[in-house]
Structure formats: C-alpha cells, structure tokens
Amino acid sequence: MQGNTTLAATCAPWAPENCNVSFEESRVVLVVVYSTVCTLGLPANCLTAWLTLLQALQGNVLAVYLFCLALCELLYVGTLPLWVVYVQNQHCWTLGLWACKVTAYIFFCNIYVSILFLCCISCDRFVAVVYALESRGRRRQKTAVAISAFIFVLVGLVHYPVFDMEHKQTCFETLHMDSRVAGFHYARFVVGFAVPLSVIAFTNHRILRSIRQSQGLTAAQKARVKRSAVAVVLIFLLCFAPYHLVLLVKAAAFSYYRGDPSAVCAFEARVYTLSMVFLCLSTVNSVADPIIYVLATDHSRQEVSRIHKGWKQWSLKTDVTKLTCSKDSGDTGSPTALINHYAFSGPVHPPGSPCPPRRLGEESC
C-alpha cells in the first residue's frame, strides 16, 4: 500500500522523464475506445469462444485457432478497465507495480499471439483451399492444438522480461527511449509484423487466385472464402500496421539522433498523440477478430440465430408461466385450479439445457 502511495505522489504528467508530452490530448480518445472495445469485445468473444469450442469438440481444425484467439482476446479485454483508470489518472499508475507488470505483459502478449493466430488461420485456409485434395486427412486437430500451445509458450517466454523492468511513473510507456528499447522496437517490427505480413499476404493471395480458377466451388462458397481472406488481411493491416510503423519510426529517430536525449524527447512529444491513436487501433482487434469467425465458418450465422431464437422462446415460456401463476394465485384455495395448473404446464428450460426424462403427454423440451 505504501508503494502505491509513493507512486501516486511522484506522478507528474509533465515530468522530464515523460518528455513533457501532453497526455490530455489523447485522454478522451483512449477512454472512449477502451470502454467501447471492452463493452463490445467481452460478449462478442464470449460467444465466439463458446461456438468455436463446440465446433472444435466436433473435430473442426480451424475452430481450434479461432477458439484460442477468442480466449486471448477475452484475457486482454478483461484488463481494459485498468487501462481506463490509468489514462484517467493522467497516465499515473496507482494500482501497484505487479499489477502494472501483469497488465502490460497481457497487452504485449495479446498483440503477438493475435498476429500469430491470424497467420495460423491464413495458413490453414491456404492448405484447405489451394491443396484441397492433398490435405484431406492430413489436417489434424492434434497438430492445431500443438501449434496453439507452442504459440502461447513462445510469446509468453519472449515477453517474460517485462517482469524484470522497473517503471516509476508511467506503466510501460518508455517515452525516454534508450538503445535497448530501440532494438526491441526494431525486432518487434521485423519479427512481429513484417514476417507475419508476408505470410498473410502470400497465403491469402494464393487463396484468392485459387478460388477464381476453381470449377468445383459454387458462387456462394467462393464469396465466403473471399470475404474471409479479405477480412484477415484488412484486420491485420488496420489494427497492427499503424502501431508497428510508429515503433519503427521511433526507433529510426533514436538512431538518427544518435540517442541524444533532448532531440529524442522532442520527437516523442511530437508523435505521442498520433502513436496513442494507432495504439487504439491495435485494441480494436479484440472486436474485429469475432468477424473472422462469422466469415470463416459455414454455420456461424445460423448458430447465432438459433441461440437468439432459443432464448426468445425460453423467455416467452417464462413469461407465460408467470402470467399463469398470477392468474391462479387468486384461486389458491381451489383444489381443481391447482390440479389443472400443475397437470398441464410443461417444464421451462433455458436453451441448451439437457431435457429431463419426460412422461407421455408432457411438453417436449
């Protein structure tokens, strides 16, 4: 508790360590975007995780990657309220050092886990579409599970040094850049963005070319595959390209100014608001990823419609039962009324619940 008090007391939005940037310029945008993404991303990724889990249990290979992607997004969305508090406090972290480290660790891991799973989705679609005959029986779910586990472990280990870093005021906003941070920015751009971009661009280009030449696919199937491929590319470019370009520009500026503190700080102050806007775009990925599920799977919209219809029917049954009970409440002294009500009212079950054994004449679940 004393650490939190000390940290709060030393926070100064215009401190030299923060390169005298104006946090207020981006505050409203960050709060609005983080709050919106949290509000929309939580139910969207919960639904996606549930539906893809059902498909994965039925042996669907692509559903494994989509399920892991949804879990990753859910974990990150859960930390967004902490970032909202942080931004509202003028980028002063008052929740403790370890809370900052864990939250930042989830943030960094989420970006690159999401990128790698977008690569997996593209590669899986590439094999299934371009090599449709050759891949039959070779696309195994066990392989998808192993690859997913490897991605989580790899990204987790790469970003583990986050727990060794110390931050006194801001939470992992390295506004005063050094050579170590600049090198990390270069590595993130090349390994975390440029290489995955090449993979996603190549695989989806081949997918689009293959479906144009295919004679065995219907027009509807071609349209669905095309929408899925275009969605993956657009989500990747819109959500991750601006953020990584800013990282590259910042690292290049550090190299250009040869690490001169005053020149680097002045540059950081000029591009800070723009970099925050681009950071918001990477956060929007948590809302955009469920779109891939809708476009990439055959029965996604039907599943969502079926669940919505089931809940409406369950709600209607519940309302009818309550209305019947209210009508009969005035006749509680009448044995005939009680017998009639309990003899002919069927059980009410929420959608998806198992049906109990029923007797002849009972209502179907």
From TrEMBL:
One of its GO terms (cellular component) is plasma membrane. GO terms for molecular function: G protein-coupled receptor activity. The keyword Ligase does not apply. It comes from the Eukaryota. Belongs to the G-protein coupled receptor 1 family. The chain crosses the membrane at residues 31-54, 61-84, 104-133, 145-163, 183-208, 229-252, 272-296. This is G protein-coupled receptor 132. It is found in: Cell membrane. The gene is GPR132. GO terms for biological process: G1/S transition of mitotic cell cycle; negative regulation of G2/M transition of mitotic cell cycle. The keyword 4Fe-4S does not apply.
